[in-house]
Amino acid sequence: xxxxxxxxxxxxxxxxxxxxxxxxxxxxxxxxxxxxxxxxxxxxxxxxxxxxxxxxxxxxxxxxxxxxxxxxxxxxxxxxxxxxxxxxxxxxxxxxxxxxxxxxxxxxxxxxxxxxxxxxxxxxxxxxxxxxxxxxxxxxxxxxxxxxxxxxxxxxxxxxxxxxxxxxxxxxxxxxxxxxxxxxxxxxxxxxxxxx
Length: 196
Fold this sequence. Notes:
The C terminus is likely disordered. This protein has 196 residues and is mainly alpha-helical.
């Protein structure tokens, strides 16, 4: 109910100040679509949608390295390998947050690292031990999937487009307001669509 009130005020303000106000809505695709549905006037006022695909695992690992360097840590090879495997699992979750997820994992690992180093080496660890995150510093990650995971974003988008009537007779009729951003090389962006 409050969403409807907010969107009604927003539509009125966007119309009354259209020459002096720029409104940008940001969020996850499903929530943004739900937000736009609150008021029929919103969809036409948000004429362009920019979708930012998830980072690749190699990009996420590069982000992790940068975050570690900023905190005066480094990642061992074992840590990098296990982190990559964990990120592959995390990407399947609806709540996956790209760099935010990486930051949370790094911060969690640093806390676990501090406890492990103190318990094993006391107050006098070597500098190398003190700054190196090892694979045992990563929390074990075993998510319980409840149907919200994304098994294959490409297949999911294709099925959704088929069901919603965006694809018919082998031709795509994708909305003009959807623009694909390019954050880098993404495997699924390079796949040929079956209706192309």
